[in-house]
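Slack export, channel: ligand-projects

TW: morning all. Re-posting the request from yesterday since it got buried. We need the structure predicted with the small molecule present, not the apo form. The ligand is zinc ion; the SMILES is in the block with the sequence. No rush, but it would help planning for next week.
GE: picking it up
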Amino acid sequence: MNTTLEAYDIELFAILKSLQQAKQNINSFIKNIWIFSDNQAAIHRICKNSKSSDQKISYKIQLKAEALFSQNIQLHICWVSDHVNIYDNEQADKAAKIAAAANYNYDVINCSNEIGISLTYLKRKTKESLLKSWQNHYNAVKKDAYYQNLHTQSAWKSLNLQLKATRIVWFSYIQLKLEHDYFKSYLKKLSDYDSDKCDCNNSSIQSSAHLLLSCSKYAAQYSKIKDKLKTSNLSLKLLLTTRDEIQAVFDFLKESEIVRRNWISN
Ligand SMILES: [Zn+2]
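GE: finished. pasting the full token output, ligand included:
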């Protein structure tokens, strides 16, 4: 297949080809045609008439289904879970893998009549390109030491960390990550605050790093976090960007109730 096609396009193409194949074998006894696919997105696409990706091919499948219906033949397109030992499905999967590994530099099957330009492919390439230019821009611009330390990677979606926390704990975590809001290294920028020093020793700047790593008021909690994570070294990068460490920060923020309006005003 053409290298500018996505799995989704190819699934739709395969459904159309199966339908054409089935039509060639129709006789007067056939009342139902069943096609099985493990791609839910492709099946949903056939049910819609929208002008999104693969409109042309899904419209062809719809027309063929209607033509069959007028001959009293019902078309059923069903979803099957993949890799559940359905013989034909496994064979198709094996054949697809062999073809993909062979890395042909020509089109094994010409599908240009059914799929001209794959919008799905174009969307993916556009997103890749935008993400790359975004990351290049981010790498090139001047950043303060705090952000350099986090090694931020551009992404379209935030990582699905599957962590649960109350709204206020999430809010405190985001504030620490952005170095913005209820702690003194940020508040010093406002006229109501004349010091950015933490009241634990009146000399350390009350920053995210200080509050998560070295404030003497929370030494006991830091030990607890180290025990939980089985490490003797904590870093801001790990605490703010990796799953288990973020969970430990959530627990700490919940227990200590720091980086909140009430905490800063007390
Ligand atoms: Zn402190």
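GE: first-pass observations. The mean pLDDT is 85. The CA atoms of residues 131 and 157 lie 11 Å apart.
TW: perfect, thank you
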